[in-house]
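[[Per-residue structure]]
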Amino acid sequence: MEDYNLKSKLIVPLDEYLGIDKLPFKVSIRAMIEIAFWGQNQSSFKRAKEIIKQVYNIDISVNNVLKVTKFIGKIVYDHSYDKALNIWNNRANININCTNKKGTLYIQADGAAVNTRVEDENGSTWRENKLGILFSESDLYKRKDKANQIMHKEYVAFVGSIETFRILIFAKAVELEYWKYENIVFISDGATWLRNMISELFPEAIQILDKYHLIENIYDYGKFIFNGDMKKVETFKEKIMRYCYSNKYNLIEKELKKYKDISIPSTVCNLPVYLKNNKDKIDYSTYEHNGWFVGSRAIESSNKTVVQQRLKQAGMRWSVDGANYLIILRCYQESNHWSEIEKIVVDCINQ
């Protein structure tokens, strides 16, 4: 009888025995992180459920994959934002003095729309995710054809205001100690918000207008003013780019004045205004001589990898918070920082 009573006192619920009775979803932290990994890595939560079944032989509902991924994403998002905000609020105390500067740090940013469940004042449910990438010369691999391949990028992203995004991208630059680089090169499509942001955060940066985006806009403008005569359009494009390479904006301005009386519809790039706003960012001869990138294809491909492949599948719509929680996990994964997530989650849960 005594032996029976002793054994009965040792019987506890399995959740408590496994130490998961007080954890969300009654699974271990490591299991939650594994679920979140597949939740952000696959094209859908349904596909993540299937992979988890194949890899671990564990059945988990699509809804629970979503909930766990969102839970982990929120923890990582809150941690990342709080860390960035602390850097931003203490930016005046950062010692940016460095006497031995070398190399180039590249920064690129762009926007990509995500479909949400909330309509704006115009009835649109689309919100712009702002994505930034940072990489240095040490992250480049020169192939045999002499082209550079980017082996590593640091990612930041935010669905929402420019004000928050600039805090995130500045904090990431601080983590990379941007002041230790001889050159900071920022490449963009020439959007006003990007020009203003980089001028504010990194006034010393060399800003470059994406050459290939410019060429697309020249073609767009040229097709309209020459009524689709591609021979004239090509000649026009070559002339504008030749002036860019010689860094003679005055000749560009003179050329474009020939067409000043033509009314340009809103659907066509207003090339005179576009180039006027970016006239100090088109010295491609100097940029290429220095070995710098002159195109923003890296950020365009990153948008496909981080945002489009996961959040823009057919029929997908997101809450703004849900999109941010998933995108931050995508950024950690693509930046090769996934191993840091367990500590972030453990510290949060143990608070």
User: Anything to note?
Assistant: DSSP finds 15 helices and seven strands in the chain. The CA atoms of residues 86 and 171 lie 9 Å apart. Confidence is low (pLDDT under 50) at residues 1-10. The longest strand covers residues 104-115.
